Each structure stands twice: as C-alpha cells, then as structure tokens.
Amino acid sequence: MGNKRSGGGLSPAQQGAKFLGVSVLAGAVLAGIALPAVGVIGLAAKGSVEGFDELPANLKQPPLSQRTTILDSAGGPIATVYSRDRTVVPLKRISPYMQKAIVAIEDARFYEHGAVDLKGILRAVNQNAQSGGVAQGASTLTQQYVKNVFVEEAHDDPAKVAEATQQTLGRKIRELKYAIQVEEELGKKRILKNYLNITYFGQAAYGVEAASQRYFSKPAKDLKVQEAALLAGIVQSPSRYDPVNDATEAKQRRNVVLQRMADTHDISQAQADRAKKTPLGLDVSRPKNGCITAVKGAGFFCKYVEKVFKNDPAFGRTKEARAKLWDRGGLRIRTTLDPQTQRSVQASIKDHVYQTDDVATAATIVEPGTGKILGMGQSRPFGYGKNETEINLSVDESMGGGAGYQPGSTFKPIVAAAALERGMSPGKRYSAPYEMPYPSSVAACDGKTWRNDPNLPAKLTNENESEVGPYRLREATAKSVNTYFVQMIGELGICPVTEMAGKMGVERANGKPMDQAPSIALGTQEVSPLTMASAYATFAARGRYCTPIAIESISTIAGKSLPVPKSRCSRAMSERTADTINTLLKGVVEDGTGKQAGLGSRDSAGKTGTTDYRYAAWFAGYTPNMSGAVWVGDPAHERKMIDISIGGRGYGKVFGGEVPGPIWRDAMSGALSGKPDPRFDTVRLPGDRDRDDHDGHDGGGNGDDDGDDGKPGDGRDRGNGGGNGNGGNGNGGRGDDDWGGWDD
C-alpha cells in the first residue's frame, strides 16, 4: 500500500521507487537470496537496513493508542480523550463481511501465501512494466500490517513517520523480513485482527470499530456487506475515498470492492449487484474528543487531570514517558469529582455571573482531610470562541491556570493562625486606627528586615472611616480590619506568616516565592481558588493540611490497576489553633462581612476578601466536611469592579460578601444537600462573656451554655471553657478574659 498524496495516487518519484522495489524484490525472491543478506547491495544509505536484526519486541502485539475515559467519582463519564480514536476489538466482534472485504481488496491470496506473495510480485512486475509506471503494488496484508506498526510507533513524530513510510528498497526489505517473522509467530487470524484494529480509515478513525461508529454509528459486528465494502475501500486512500467529503468517489470505490468480493466468491454476483445499487447509507457520528466535550462544565477539571497525569512521576519517570502513556490511552480514570457538587457549582455560577459579563468567576470545592477535589467550575467555558477560554481560572499557572489573583482579606486568617501558633492570645488588642503607616521595620526570614521608606512611607487604611479600634481578634476578623492585622504582623514578623502559609499549601500561582513584606497580611500575593479552598480545608480538618488530588484510580483496558498519587497530609497547626480560627470565622458568617454567605442552621465559617481598586473579590469558606473558594474579577486585571453589571445586577462597588459570598452559599448548599451535618469544635474566646453566645456551639464543654458553671457537658463541643468536652467531669475553668491560658 503506497504512501498516497491527498488527492490520491503516487508522485513520479514514488512510482519509480515502487517499480524498482517490486522488480528488485522479485529478483531477490526468485534467486532464493536470504533477505537479511540483501543489505550488502549498497542501498543502506538510501533507507536502509541498519539495525536489520533488531525486531521490535512489540511488533507482534503493539500497544495501540486507544480512547481514555475520564469518569467522576460515581463512575459517570466526564469526557473521552485520545490521540487516536480507536477501540480494539476481537475478530468475533467484527462483521464477517468486513473481514472478507478487506482481504478481497487488499490481499485476495492472503490465506494462500506466506509473508511474501510470489505470484503477486510477478503479477505486479508484469503490470508495471507494461504500464511504464505503477499499476499494481505487491505488498501483502502482513507487510501492510508491519508498516502500520512502525507508523503507530512513530505517532506524531514527523521524522519517524517519514522513516516508516519512505519509498526505499531498504524499507521494503526490512518490512519483508519482519513480515516473515510475524507470519510464523502470529498466524493469519491474528494478523487479520491486528490489521483491522491498527489501520487508518479516515475521519480521525483508527481501527474498524471506530470507523464503523464514525460512518454508520454502529459497532463493527453489525456492518452489512455494502457498509463493509465502503470501509475496506477507504483504506487505500482515506482522503481520496472519504465518503463524507466525496460521496461519488467513495461509492465507485465501494462498488469496486463489492465486485472484487464477488470475483473471489466471498459473495455471489447477485449479492454484489444488489449492494451496488444501495445508497451509501451514512449515519455519521462526529468525534467527541478531548476536554472540550466534557459534561457538567467539567472541561477545566478534565484538563487538570491531564496536567496531573503528565506532571506526576507516578505515571512515568520522564516527561516523555508520561506523555507517551497518556497518548497511548486505553485507560479508565476515575476521578474525585463529585457529580452532585459539580452540578451545584455550575448552577450557582450560571445564576450569579453571565458568560458575557466583563468579569468572570471561578469556584472550587475540596474535601477536608482527604484533599479530594469535589467540584471545579467557572463562568467562561472551555473553548476557543468569544467569552470562552482555555485558561483554568481555578488553578496555578503550571497546571493550566493563569498568574493568579490577590486574595485580599481571605489571607488574614493565615496571619491569625501564625500568631496563635506563636502563643499570641485571641484577646490581643491593637489600636487599629482608620489610617496608619506600615511599621518602620518588620523582621523577615533569614535574619533579614523589611523597612518602610522614611521618605515615601507606605500607608494603609481600613475599608470604612468608622473602623477605629481598639479591637480584639474576633471583632477585627469579623469586620476585616486592615490596620489590626498589619499591626499583628508587625509584632509577629513576616517569616512565621509565610511559614504558616507554606504549611497550608499557599503558594503564589505563578510559582514565584512569597514577598517578604508586611502587606502580605492583606493578601497581596496572587493565588488560585484551588489553593485557597485547600488552605481553608486545613481549618475544617482541625489543623491538618492535605494536598489536593483529582485522581482516585486508573485501570488499563485489560483491567490492570496503575498506582496513583495520594494526598499528602501533614499537621499545619494545633487543633486548638484551628478550633480558634473556626470560631472566629464562624462569627464572620453569623455577624460579620460574610453574612450573605451563611448556610442557615448548618455550621459554616469563612472570610470575605476584596483587593485595591476592586480588581478581585473573594469568599473562602467551609463546613466540617467541605471547603470552597470563589473568586470574581477580570482575569486580565484590567476591569475594576466599580459601577459594573454582574449577572444582570448593577453594583456601585463589589464586595467579597456581596457577589462571591452568595455564589459560595448556593454552590455549597446544593453540594451539601442530603449530606451529614457535623458541627465545628469551637472555643470560647476572651471577652465572650459580654456576647450573647448561648447557642450551644460557642460555649464550653456542655454544648448548651457558655461553660462558666463547669457542669458536665455532652461532648458536642471541645469544652475548653468549662467541662472537658467529652461529656465528662466538668471540672471547668474560669471562663473569663484569661480563659484557656491566654492573656489579653
């Protein structure tokens, strides 16, 4: 089978090479020359027999590129991806008509000759000599199979493809030698099966099963005689005989195959004549390949899975090895994506932000304690048109995302956690004026010091002029008081904060190190929604951070399981620190800036965030069993969210609790519907005796009042104020401002 041009037929140079090749091969065979010895004729330089005795180990049964199916956690399909649209099937699942048709048109004497068809070679030499060109080829089906194996191994490497298909005597000799071995070791039936599964049928369909589905939307076992003849005819020149683009040419070719089947007595002449009169009967199914076809808006999650696969050494020691395994396909990848969560994320996004808006939103939900990514979506869908994008707005740049977005005040709980871990009391008061300069100097990592320029001192303000301290941590967190947290990092130092961020998996989306500056307390370092969702999951998991994972299991088409990377969990902070943060952030959604994000009776906690000039707005929050982050903004960092319409509603200024908060609320509500309703382990904070906190959750160990009396509790809450939190002896504590060992 020659290397055809797009319009069909061979070039003059190819014709000459093929004529010469067939003639010389005929002479070699007739003379009884051992094929390996032919290399001495000096043609190696033209394409050669170098490495002639090195038979590839997988030539007899090459690992063919096939479809990979990506599934959600319930086993439902998300997308099918492939570099070759192919489904390998045994002969029993291929119509007998198809088997007969391909043999009749490509190698009618297939079952009579060995690897080399001597009669075919002599016939080709005679026909070609008479025509002065190439009227007929001499490759057997086995030789064609061997060539296809080398083309398959070359994959998309142009140089290797050219080498596998070059019209040289050296290649034909090598092809013949390999064909002899294949005939001896496989036998005719297996060769036919392998050939039908490897060969290209046009329209991006490799193998007969994919071709049958593409052209007739049916499995190969159900092909009728005229349908089988059409597919068999395509093989010689998939571009010339493409029935989708040239029905007339394809029909003529199909009828040639039908007549050939009659001539070889595979069907009767009457059958052939009837079949020739039938229309092509196409029922074309367009290929659905790649993450762009993903369901439930999971295209970006699908691409994230691909990135994980290609980047993780668990799937190959080198980048090239991982890419080859992915391209080979034939895998079933079950992911962590929860279908209920994903539907809820997409529905919430659609309700609140339009695809055509000036700004976009991205949301990600993960499971605390496991790192499983449960949902991932955005308002600009996966695609290449207007208001579509290939950039995954939820992840870091290295995983297909952008450079990230400033998280604003959603970073403040990380500062608070670092301070608590260093022994600072949550009752700590700072003056927190409306406006102040940054501290003159702040200790940084490696013994360095950040210094404020005395000539141009950097200043900051709170959101509202009414926000004037002194404040304790609870009120400063609820109101998101900037000056409080800058005063805190000024006393604490920058390094404990960046170290805590690192323990919680918070890294800049562009891969650069965190800046050693006190402004980090206000969320000036660009991060991704997945990063913030995973970081906040640390609080929900009572101080344990787990790296995000997207893949639960992978199996090959043969059912063999492949090892997959597991989440790595480590303690980022003490349970006491996490419980304190949970108490603080629970107050944010109950009484603070995140009230619009509350989940009603279900325990939830979170933090709002906005950036200077309203380029980004956030809400990051969690329940004990889910953690999510929502970002809203312009991915290009150009459109300020002032006097703007989002989701059909106008906003003078966008706040984190106003747009991202409700998106988070609706996404989480749907995701959690029907799921368990666990409670946080909360603590009683200094100063809480002045608050109406008798809600049964914020009190001491008895879970139904503030714990001051030290009576036995039911163990629902930790009971640091009174009782021991396990329904036990209730030996209690004072419950005053010095409670729990903190000194305010």
From TrEMBL:
Listed GO MF terms: penicillin binding; peptidoglycan glycosyltransferase activity; serine-type D-Ala-D-Ala carboxypeptidase activity
Residues annotated as domain Penicillin-binding protein transpeptidase: 362-632
Pfam families attached to this UniProt entry: Transgly, Transpeptidase
Catalytic activity: Preferential cleavage: (Ac)2-L-Lys-D-Ala-|-D-Ala. Also transpeptidation of peptidyl-alanyl moieties that are N-acyl substituents of D-alanine; [GlcNAc-(1->4)-Mur2Ac(oyl-L-Ala-gamma-D-Glu-L-Lys-D-Ala-D-Ala)](n)-di-trans,octa-cis-undecaprenyl diphosphate + beta-D-GlcNAc-(1->4)-Mur2Ac(oyl-L-Ala-gamma-D-Glu-L-Lys-D-Ala-D-Ala)-di-trans,octa-cis-undecaprenyl diphosphate = [GlcNAc-(1->4)-Mur2Ac(oyl-L-Ala-gamma-D-Glu-L-Lys-D-Ala-D-Ala)](n+1)-di-trans,octa-cis-undecaprenyl diphosphate + di-trans,octa-cis-undecaprenyl diphosphate + H(+)
Entry's Gene Ontology BP terms: cell wall organization; peptidoglycan biosynthetic process; proteolysis; regulation of cell shape
Biased composition (Basic and acidic residues): 676-698, 709-719
Keywords: Carboxypeptidase, Cell shape, Cell wall biogenesis/degradation, Glycosyltransferase, Hydrolase, Membrane, Multifunctional enzyme, Peptidoglycan synthesis, Protease, Transferase, Transmembrane, Transmembrane helix
Gene3D superfamilies for this protein: Biosynthetic peptidoglycan transglycosylase-like, DD-peptidase/beta-lactamase superfamily
GO annotation, cellular component aspect: outer membrane-bounded periplasmic space
Domain Glycosyl transferase family: 77-261
Gene source species: Streptomyces spectabilis
Biased amino acid composition, Gly residues: 720-733
PANTHER family: BINDING PROTEIN TRANSPEPTIDASE, PUTATIVE-RELATED, PEPTIDOGLYCAN GLYCOSYLTRANSFERASE
Name of protein: Membrane peptidoglycan carboxypeptidase
Transmembrane region(s): 20-45
Family: In the N-terminal section; belongs to the glycosyltransferase 51 family.
UniProt-annotated stretches for the region Disordered: 666-744
